[in-house]
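Hey, I'm writing a tutorial for new members on how sequence and structure tokens pair up, and I'd like a real worked example in the thread rather than a made-up one. If someone can provide the structure for the chain below, I'll link this post from the tutorial.
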Amino acid sequence: MTPDAPLCDAPHSGAPDPGAAEIPAAGLRSAEPAAVIEIRDLYKSYGQLDVLRGVSIAARRGQVVSLIGSSGSGKSTLLRCCNLLEDSQAGEVLFEGEAVKWRGEGPARRPADRAQVTRIRTNLAMVFQQFNLWSHMTVLQNVMEAPVTVLGRARADVEAAARRYLDKVGIGDKAEAWPAQLSGGQQQRAAIARALCMEPRALLFDEPTSALDPELQQEVVRVIKDLAAERRTMMLVTHDMKLAADLSDHVVFLHQGRIEEQGPPDQLFGNPKTDRLRQFLRAGTAA
């Protein structure tokens, strides 16, 4: 999505989060919410393999943007570039209008300001496909660790917030449990609570339900839907087309490292314009 791309005509419902700008009436472009995450003409390759080829996308405050496409289309790589877990070879990455500073060019390009990278990462909390909980810590300790050690917050304040977020995702009674004692769905909800405890400006989800069986998937989907209803800014990589259709303000279909088609979910899923997207959706329906 380019910086001028419109918001979906029917954004997801719910009360706005405290930092969210008011969603404007149609046509009032000057009041459009600011972009929290913005990517401009991004290129990323691994050796001779081009993974992203000139991708531009933005997630504005209060928006849910879903990235869909076949495996290998560049979705997860794009998300990792947003969070600066991957270095790109060209293009711009901006957080709330602030451009990442780079040194070097092409394969040698690296972020120039490590303090800036740390600040951006702490404001773009990422939830991975695998839960990545520390096995030697209780669930509560997992949720508290980063706010205490990375952000330097007072432990008593963090513990109170961590317990609130565990209640929020429905596993407050598991605070003293070890990760191995939790189901996959409970572990993923703990990972979401851990991300929320950082009080981020946006949440990035990389296939948050794909490692779970269908019953456990629904536990996590309910939590993500609740977060969307709160008008939290989110970028979501998913193979779950129903989830993307239900939650998103804007959907981006990636194919071979490029944006093949994008727009509001009713347009992409109800009236796809490209043969490639129609083929992708047919294959998903058949599966």
